[in-house]
Design a protein that fits this description.
By secondary structure, this protein is an alpha/beta fold. The chain is about 35% helix and about 30% strand. The structure holds adenosine-5'-triphosphate.
Length: about 300
């Protein structure tokens, strides 16, 4: 996959001196969905605003399909659509007029056939003559996407597309984004919902404190992170892990009252039944068992904390 956006050594300090981005390097691949995941205030909005050229850069540069987004602003910007976090629509305008107006802002010639196509993609076509105020929240969000797509960009940035949105609308948005990707749009979204990154992204970038902590294929990340812990409460405490169980990743906790088995969720068999049988054969009596998923969230928090201390 070719690179469509390159961010090189990007730093951003706001007036007053606060440094929101610290030497960020990031490559976005053509056709992918990249989720930028990070806690509040991590710098996600600042990063996409800098890439889109609506916030000034303090150091470094951004290339959009080879165009520097400062020295070749127009060429770079014309390739980008940005869906902002806030719904800022003119309530009395119709859907069609709203989207047409956005296209005009980019100096593009009228092309209602294209806009109709975008509205169809977003299931808004039958609302094209409806005033924005009469739309549901989900439809308004799709109008924001239609506006962002109005000038035929190749890259779409979605800033927290589902913040404050209920579960069914969130799923609807995920579907919409997947459809857009199928049609060849490269998509970058910011989110602090881990399950959103998990559901949608090809790659996940984790950002905190103005720095990209890692960017990884989702599958690889889930593989690394998809570990579970089985806590086996023992009837009698042990002083050491019973012999002959080397194939299991076992440790003792709670002064030997608990045997902890860590296993990979992705592997075909978890080995739990075999482990429990092996324990019974060794006379180890089990009082209770419970599992804990080491979620993407745990790993995310661990990672952000560990990196923060490094
Ligand atoms: N215009 C501004 N002036 C000064 N500081 C700002 C400005 N905009 C953002 N910041 C600060 O920069 C940091 C990063 O903000 P940003 O909005 O990029 O974070 P975010 O990751 O998008 O957060 P959220 O998930 O809450 O939207 C925050 O500490 C924020 O307070």
């Amino acid at each position: 996959m070719a690179d469509i956006v390159r961010v090189e050594g990007l730093s951003k300090s706001y007036k007053g001196g606060f440094q929101a981005l610290k030497h960020v390097d990031l490559t976005i691949r053509e056709g992918e969905i990249l989720a930028l995941l990070g806690p509040n205030g991590a710098g996600k909005t600042t990063l996409i605003s800098c890439i889109c050229g609506i916030t000034s850069i303090s150091a470094g540069r951004v290339l959009v399909a080879g165009h520097d987004n400062v020295t070749e602003y127009r060429a770079a910007r014309s390739l980008i659509g940005l869906v902002p976090q806030e719904i800022n629509l003119e309530p009395f305008e119709t859907v069609m007029a709203t989207v047409r107006y956005s296209r005009g802002l980019f100096g593009k010639k009228d092309n209602d056939a294209y806009i109709d196509e975008v509205l169809r993609q977003l299931s808004l076509y039958d609302k094209r003559d409806t005033q924005v105020r009469a739309l549901s929240g989900g439809m308004k969000r799709r109008v924001l996407i239609a506006k962002a797509l109005s000038h035929e960009p190749q890259i779409l940035f979605l800033d927290e597309p589902t913040a404050g949105v209920d579960v069914s609308l969130r799923k609807e948005m995920w579907q919409t984004v997947a459809e857009l990707q199928k049609r060849g749009v490269t998509i970058i979204l910011t989110t602090h919902y881990i399950e959103e990154a998990e559901a949608m992204a090809d790659r996940i970038g984790i950002i905190s404190d103005g720095q990209i902590r890692l960017v990884r294929e989702k599958q690889a990340l889930m593989h690394e992170l998809g570990r579970k812990v089985l806590r086996i409460e023992l009837a009698q405490p042990l002083t050491e892990v019973p012999a002959g169980l080397d194939t299991y990743e076992l440790s003792l906790a709670k002064d030997g009252a608990e045997l902890v088995y860590t296993y990979d969720v992705q592997s075909d068999g978890t080995g739990i039944t075999r482990l429990l049988t092996a324990l019974a054969e060794r006379g180890v009596k089990v009082r209770d068992i419970r599992t804990e998923q080491s979620s993407l969230e745990d790993i995310f928090v661990d990672l952000v904390e560990a990196e923060g201390q490094a």
